[in-house]
Amino acid sequence: MLAATDPDAPAPADLRAVAAMLATEFPIPLPGLIEATDPAHVQRWILRDRPGLKQWSKGRATLVGDAAHPTSPYAAYGAGMSIEDGYFLGKVLRGVDLTDLTAVRAALQAYENPRKVHTARQVQQAWMLGKVFHHTPALLRPLRDLVFNHTPFLQMVAGDTNPKEINKQLALIQD
To answer: What confidence tens digit (pLDDT) does each residue in 34-79 have?
Structure first.
């Protein structure tokens, strides 16, 4: 369960009680799952944003997923982009002589370069959605909800544009 909080503030003494209170706004089975969770297994995990790396590959090694382009969990993009990374990495390495360092480096760069633009956009989108949905000050939330509920803004930003970007990546997957 995600909740905006001051990362420097001390954690509540009873995390499960806080989670149970937050879960009252959610349908069954979530409240019961939290109630059934041993308090020793409830933890606070502070999310921190960090910029993506400028270079993902060095020598024969490369990074994929959140290691290369860390994504806030607000939009669930991280797992999908990791799977895409694996596909595109495998595709560029297919047929490459892995004993040829120059060929491996070229293949890793061929994986990395086209992925950077897409993943940077997805990371930015997830960050923005996190700010809008989880960090809007309480006094502004009714205005935010009014705009989202009665204008096409949210649909244009998250519902139309982003799936088009993801579909462009999926169209590149051909085998």
So the answer is: 999 999 998 888 777 777 789 999 999 999 998 999 888 766 788 8
**Residue 173 structure tokens:** 């997957």
For 120-140, the DSSP string reads HHHHHHHHHHHHHHHSS-GGG
DSSP 8-state code for residue 11: P
CA distance 70 to 157: 21
Long-range contacts of 50-59 (CB under 8 A, 24+ apart): 52/116, 52/119, 52/120, 52/123, 55/112, 56/108, 56/112, 56/115, 56/116, 57/105, 57/108, 57/109, 57/111, 57/112, 59/101, 59/105
Of all residues in the chain, what percent carry a pLDDT higher than 90?
42
Query: First CA to last CA across the chain, in angstroms?
Result: 37
Structure-token pair, residue 27 = 């349908």
| Average pLDDT of the chain to the nearest whole number | 87
User: Is the Cα dihedral 136, 138, 144, 145 positive or negative?
Assistant: positive
* Rounded Cα–Cα distance for residues 19 and 42 (Å): 9
Lowest mean pLDDT among 10-14, 116-120, 134-138: 134-138
Residue 30, CA distances (Å) to 22, 36, 43 in order: 10, 10, 17
The amino acid present at 8, given as its one-letter code, is: D
